[in-house]
Every structure is written in C-alpha cells, then in structure tokens.
Amino acid sequence: MRCDACGDEAMVAFDVPDELREFAPEEADVAAICPICLSVRAVDDGADAAAASAASVHDAFPADPDAAAGVALLLGLLESLVLNKPEIQSLVDRLEDGGTDVFLVLDRLSSDPDVDPRVDLERRRPQLQQLIE
Fold first, then answer.
1. For the stretch 85-117, what's the b/e string if a residue is b when 16 or more beta carbons lie within 10 angstroms of its beta carbon?
2. Nearest CA to 40 among 1, 85, 97?
3. Is the C or the N end of the chain the one with fewer CB within 10 Å?
4. Percent of the chain beyond pLDDT 90?
5. What sign has the CA pseudo-torsion 62, 67, 73, 74?
6. Which pLDDT belongs to residue 50?
7. pLDDT tens, residue by residue, 2-58
8. What are phi and psi of 13, to 5 degrees?
9. Is 81 exposed, middle or buried (0-12, 13-18, 19+ CB in 10 A)?
10. At what angle do helices 102-110 and 65-77 cross, to 10 degrees?
C-alpha cells in the first residue's frame, strides 16, 4: 500500500479497536500508518490489506496492539491540534491511563533519523503538553 503523503510503499495496515474507532480517520475498522512520514489514513473496506499490529511500525510503539493503534491514531490527529483538540485530549488520557507514555513515544520517534514525520514532533510535543494540562 502506497503512502499518499510521501510515496513510501510500506504502509502498515492495522485493526482499529472498537473503543478507539471514534479517533480513526472516517471511523474506519482498519487504518494504515506510514512508517516513514507517520501519516495515517483509513483503509477502504475493499482494499486488499492484511492488518498487522501497529506495534510493528516502530520500536517506539507500545507492544500492546490496542495501545499501538491508539498511538498511531494520535499521530494522525496531531496534524491539527486546533481541529482535533477534544479527540487528542481524550485519546492521550486513555493511552496514559493504560500505561502508555505518549511523550516518550514522541521523543523516540522524533529522534530516529529514519523517520521523517509530516508533523514536526519536536514542536508538537510542547504544544501537546500545554493542550492536555
């Protein structure tokens, strides 16, 4: 599956848990994330994509498939803090309540030279911290 944002061919499709569907693009059952630019998009029902765990995207992602899916969805929402503020706050709360250190994940992703996120994670981190406090 090709990434619409950067053209990479290695997008990772993952199942979106029912309890996180409201945070998914188009409230999709299956979404995909690009391991290079971290763009997230819905996967069409008819698409031939075997869903893996979002944890396989990067070592920084939590091993738990549901938490990894939540992190992937959060990365998609970070494209617009203003438009996605309530969803971001709710998702970060859920992830942190489940034991995921969202800021550690962002730090690890932003320090990896093989990752070139569409969103400047270093700039988003303090903005996100202000948003959820």
1. eeebeebbebbeeeebebeebbebbbeeeebeb
2. 1
3. C
4. 87
5. negative
6. 61
7. 999 999 998 999 999 999 999 999 999 999 999 999 999 999 865 555 677 888 999
8. -85, 140
9. middle
10. 70
Residue 48: predicted pLDDT: 54
Tracing tokens 């202000």 back to the chain, one arrives at 130
Tell me the two tokens of residue 48: 């031939």
Token output for 96:
């942190």
The CA-based dihedral angle spanning residues 81, 84, 90, 91, taken in that order and rounded to the nearest 10 degrees: -80
Split at pLDDT 50, 70, 90, the class of 132 is confident
Rounded distance, CA 105 to CA 41, Å?
20
